[in-house]
Write a structure and sequence with these properties.
Layout lengths: L3 E6 L7 H14 L4 E6 L1 H4 L6 H17 L8 E4 L5 H10 L4 H5 L2 H8 L6 H16 L4 E3 L5 H18 L7 E3 L34 H9 L16 H14 L3 H8 L4 H27 L4 H28 L6
Parallel strand pairs: 1-2, 2-3, 4-5
Helix pairs in contact: 3-12, 4-7, 4-13, 7-8, 9-12, 10-12
The structure holds adenosine-5'-tetraphosphate (AQP).
């Protein structure tokens, strides 16, 4: 039997090239080696306020983008997290075995909490819900961007703690990071991760941006005061542009050096912009096809929930038995 892979994206805004290069592209590449489940983690998205009508539209958009990015719904299962109650059920059971101190150390919690006026408990519990998503399906591999590595470590810690308290129950999931593109930085500020929730107009290239918008954002990217690419001493903005080019093109380090060493920043930006436009063109075309049938995505999500609910429910039942909770005799 094939091992299981699980990963998710929050429908918390416009998906950007960081989400694509860090996650979706890798998912599409490895999906056939596994029994693959990809999730729109809407319960995670509501850990910060989301406009309800907009959230629903983003859930559908995110599902369509998964398919447009190459997730094959005939092979891989696509689900909306909130359509499967077992995610929230298991999260509660795992919350009860997760020490408070572990969650307080999460860097994403610290960053997200600092950005909110009122910090909901959900932001604190976020990594436990993520552990539940993964452990619910006994996933062996979780392909994510680098920002999620710490949450994956916590997932393993929670699984180990549960296993040692209640007996072997959960498979220990491995983190899978892409070799290039695991951390794409903001184009307006290369010291911060590219993020859906960042406000700057030139922060990100979104997957559905039209070509002219993509070109403008990349041409305005922050670089440094040097005139041209100098590989031994790359500033963070230039390194980020090169990283984006390399992740999209699949060029080797040698090819990158040969092509870009000594190139003026204006020319580098033009080449990066044309590469991104060309690579996103087929994705955008597929997205338009997929969304031209209004019932298609809803059908995929319904089928997905039907397919994986038995796995999710059997894990919850196993966990209940292990913990001594009530299960119908
Ligand atoms: N900048 C990035 N570079 C590489 N990978 C990234 N990912 C996110 N940002 C980058 C990866 O994309 C997947 C989905 O991310 P998410 O939706 O779960 O949330 P996030 O990591 O918090 O991403 P955002 O875009 O910054 O969302 P908001 O602003 O809503 O919090 C994950 O695999 C992630 O690693």
């Amino acid at each position: 039997m094939k091992k299981r892979v699980f990963s998710g994206v929050q429908p918390s805004g416009d998906l950007h090239i960081g989400n694509y290069l860090g996650a979706l592209k890798n998912w599409a590449r490895i999906q056939y080696d596994y029994e693959s489940i990809f999730c729109i983690v809407d319960l995670h998205a509501v850990t910060v306020f989301q406009e309800p009508a907009q959230l629903l539209a983003k859930i559908r958009e995110t599902a369509a983008l998964f398919i447009a990015a190459g997730i094959d719904p005939r092979h891989s299962t696509i689900i909306a997290q909130s359509s499967i109650p077992a995610h929230a059920e298991l999260a509660w059971m795992l919350t009860c075995v997760t020490p408070f101190g572990w969650l307080g150390r999460m860097t994403q919690f610290k960053a997200k909490a600092a950005a909110q006026e009122t910090v909901g408990d959900g932001i604190f519990q976020y990594p436990v819900l993520m552990a539940a998503d993964i452990l619910l399906y006994q996933a062996a591999v979780v392909p994510v961007g680098e920002d999620q590595s710490q949450h994956l470590e916590l997932t393993r810690d929670v699984a180990q703690r549960f296993n040692s308290l209640y007996g072997e129950t959960f498979v220990m999931p491995e983190t899978s990071l892409p070799s290039v593109g695991a951390r794409i930085m903001g184009l307006d500020d290369p010291d911060v991760k590219m993020s859906k929730s960042a406000k700057g107009a030139n922060h990100a290239v979104n997957l559905l941006d039209p070509p002219d918008r993509i070109r403008k954002t990349i041409m305005r990217a922050t670089t440094d005061s040097n005139p041209a690419v100098n590989f031994p001493a790359l500033g963070p903005g230039v390194a980020n542009l090169l990283n984006i080019y390399q992740a999209f093109s699949g060029a080797s380090d040698e090819e990158m050096h040969a092509r870009f060493e000594g190139m003026r920043y204006g020319d580098l930006k033009k080449q990066v912009a044309e590469m991104v436009v060309a690579q996103l063109e087929p994705l955008q075309r597929r997205y338009a096809e997929i969304t031209s049938d209004p019932g298609y995505v809803a059908g995929i999500l319904r089928e997905g929930a039907e397919r994986v609910s038995p796995i999710a429910n059997s894990t919850v039942e196993l966990v209940k038995r292990r913990m001594g909770l009530y299960v119908e005799p």
